[in-house]
Amino acid sequence: MNLVLLLPEDLQAPDRARLTGRRLAHVREVHRAKVGDDLAVGLLGGAMGRGRVLRLDDEALELALTLDQPPPPKLPLTLVIALPRPKVLNRVVAAATSLGAARLVLLNAWKVEKAYWASPRMQPDSLRAQMLLGLEQARDTALPDLRLARLFRPFVEDELPALLAGGTGLMAHPGTGEPAPRTLAAPVTLAIGPEGGWVEAEVQSLLRAGLRPLDLGPRILRTETALAALVGRLF
Prior knowledge:
Layout: E1 4-6, E2 11-13, E3 16-19, H1 21-31, E4 38-43, E5 48-56, E6 61-69, E7 75-82, H2 86-99, E8 101-107, H3 114-117, H4 124-138, E9 145-149, H5 152-164, E10 168-172, E11 188-192, H6 200-209, E12 212-214, H7 223-234
Parallel strand pairs: 1-4, 7-8, 7-11, 8-9, 10-11, 10-12
Antiparallel strand pairs: 2-3, 3-6, 4-5, 5-6
Helix pairs in contact: 2-4, 2-7, 5-6
């Protein structure tokens, strides 16, 4: 936790907060803070700054707040990611958030098993928890816009073209031989398929929607690895 992320319900006054649970335990056991210490804090959806520890014990962490800094700007990036396996989903959502993507779309695809959509990790509270962890990691307070697209064709044909308007659309797919571009017209929409890539019909649909192919080379990467490599290369 690089940022103590405050929720609106933590505020006792505009300049006071009280925390319990996971964040209290982290500050005590990892930060090893003590009364009088300053911690990096931020209010979800709001400003960042410092929190001076007024109380820290088994029951609660109380902070005096100075929130006077804006969060870092979001990347002009929409990530369209084929829904990964449940055990990978948490890492992908947290990573996309910490990298600063403005929008995240979890998309169905032919290689996505139907059972993935029924996973408890797809529940709104679970997805939000992973995004909050991503914000804490990156020292950010602004959640990305999260969209679940359970139907591939309606999303690609009806919604994706609007996301591409005035920007650059890219589709990561092994075997295209096209390296990632370096100079991009913002905003950027980047589609990352399942491990092993999109099936051919999906490739053609994404190309018709206006995406350009790119290739990271002959290695087949995990979704979270491809995500970090591509965002690092493009931005």
